[in-house]
Design goal:
CATH superfamily of the largest domain: Aminoglycoside phosphotransferase (APH), C-terminal lobe
Distance between the termini: 47 Å
CATH class of the largest domain: Alpha Beta
Number of helices: 10
Number of strands: 10
Helix content: 40-55%
Radius of gyration: 19 Å
CATH topology of the largest domain: Aminoglycoside 3'-phosphotransferase, Chain: A, domain 2
Length: about 325
């Protein structure tokens, strides 16, 4: 993997974007090189993409610009001095984005109102993408729940009975039912690492690296699944659910599949992270998903799908 040191990043920022960086701070990421760029009077995000193609980065950039035009609080790609949103350098695709002020929700406990705001913003962003499309929108990506079977080699490598059973049920029962559900481009990664809170209010959604055209309900499943990894607590998930449905109604078929989609998301996170840790043993961002996924799947085993839905909806209604 190509790397960039801070001195080179500062040089590139100056040469390409005329940005004088005073400080660079590492931002977590799956594979990309991410830095918060601090100048005398503002901040930016510098991203160097390692694996995605230029078409996929163009998809992300155009989606962010589409959302900004609709008043959504998401990063905005900044053109370089030649007007380009993507700069090629040493096999990497480089971008600079605006900075969303605040802090990632992370592992902190947040009050119900903030959780509901988070769920609502995930729905708002996905709603605003309903009229957006791109030639690469339906690309192959392991993070798309509807494409979960891509992860079968990782599942076989993991050889975990619970994960194998979840994938078997997904293939035989869930995937056929998914085909009739509403589908368009969604953010597909609305969780506590990408939701930003500023002064007690959810202020934005970042990281468009997993966006894809898929069933819209998958966006809610991703959100709930990832929050459950941090805290095995239906009350938290219920507040997120309440916020989401305040902005986007979900139909009976979507609701019925939601528990299975949540479990499938967690199962392939475990399988993929277990594999990638072998390939990238020093990547702590990936490692964090292994123990959390195992713990959450074990916790979910005690509930039927009906019980999971009952835990989400009545708790959410009580607010």
């Amino acid at each position: 993997m190509t790397s960039l040191d801070d001195a080179e990043i500062k040089r590139i920022l100056k040469e390409e974007w005329d940005i004088d960086a005073d400080e660079l701070h590492v931002l977590e990421g799956y594979f990309d090189i991410n830095r918060r760029v601090v100048t005398r009077d503002k901040s930016f995000v510098f991203k160097a993409t390692v694996y995605d193609s230029e078409d996929i980065i163009d998809l992300q950039n155009k989606a962010m610009l589409h959302l900004r035009k609709k008043g959504m609080s998401v990063p905005e790609p900044i053109p370089n001095k030649d007007g380009k949103l993507i700069v090629k350098h040493a096999g990497l695709l480089l971008r600079v984005l605006t900075w969303i002020p605040g802090e990632q929700m992370g592992k902190k406990d947040w009050p119900p109102e903030v959780l509901r705001q988070a769920g609502a913003l995930v729905a708002k962003i996905d709603n605003a993408l309903a009229d957006f499309d791109h030639p690469s929108a339906d690309h192959e990506i392991t993070a798309d729940i509807s494409q979960a079977l891509i992860n079968i080699p990782y599942v076989e490598e993991l050889d975990d009975p619970d994960v194998t059973q979840i994938f078997h049920e997904f293939e035989k029962q869930v995937l056929p039912a998914l085909q009739d559900l509403p589908k368009h481009v969604i953010h597909n990664d609305g969780h506590q690492h990408n939701l930003v809170v500023n002064n007690g209010t959810v202020a934005g959604l970042i990281d468009f690296g997993d966006m894809v055209k898929t069933q819209v309900i998958n966006g809610l499943a991703v959100c709930l699944a990832t929050f459950l990894l941090i805290k095995q607590d239906f009350a938290t998930a219920a507040h997120l659910y309440t916020g989401y449905i305040s902005e986007r109604s979900i139909n009976a078929a979507e609701q019925q599949l939601l528990p299975s989609l949540i479990k499938t998301r967690i199962a392939f996170l475990l399988a993929e992270a277990s594999h990638e840790t072998k390939e990238h043993p020093d990547n702590e961002y990936i490692k964090q998903y292994i123990g959390a996924s195992k713990k959450t799947l074990q916790w979910l085993r005690q509930f039927t799908d009906k019980e999971i839905l009952e835990q989400l909806t009545p708790s959410a209604a009580r607010g």
